[in-house]
Amino acid sequence: QVQVVESGGGLVQAGGSLTLSCTASGLTFDDYAMGWFRQAPGKEREAVSCIKWSGDSTYYTDSVKGRFTISRDNAKKTLYLHMSSLKPEDTAMYYCAAGVTWRSLPLKTDFIFWGQGTQVTVSS
User: Fold this and answer.
1) CA 4 to CA 85: how far, in whole Å?
2) Shortest CA distance to 111 belongs to which of 59, 48, 33?
3) How far apart are CA 31 and CA 122, in angstroms?
4) What is the pLDDT of residues 30-42, one digit of tens each?
5) pLDDT of residue 24
6) How many degrees, rounded to 5, is the angle at CA 44 between CA 17 and CA 110?
7) CA 55, 23, 10: angle at the middle one, nearest 5?
8) Which of 70, 67, 89 lies closest to 17, judged by CA?
């Protein structure tokens, strides 16, 4: 069966950096768009950054542009999110997801396989 597993979350001070990783098994990784989503307490889950199966198209939500970088290694079936200049408002549970549809503005409903999440906490 398909398994999506995130790692790399933790506690970091504001202004610091963190890199999240996500491995996916049980699927043909390079057939899937991949995305990072986050959900803070009391808020809806939002798309943070997504990348097309080929890696030649990406999406970033406005609040992370210039600070976060998404990348993928199809040979290793791994997705990454490098986060820098972190802010307290980046605090959330971060989820990795795989989907077969690519849009310029990704929708949660396009992503069909989800991980359990990794917590990112940014202290001020």
Assistant:
1) 27
2) 33
3) 33
4) 999 999 999 999 9
5) 96
6) 90
7) 105
8) 67
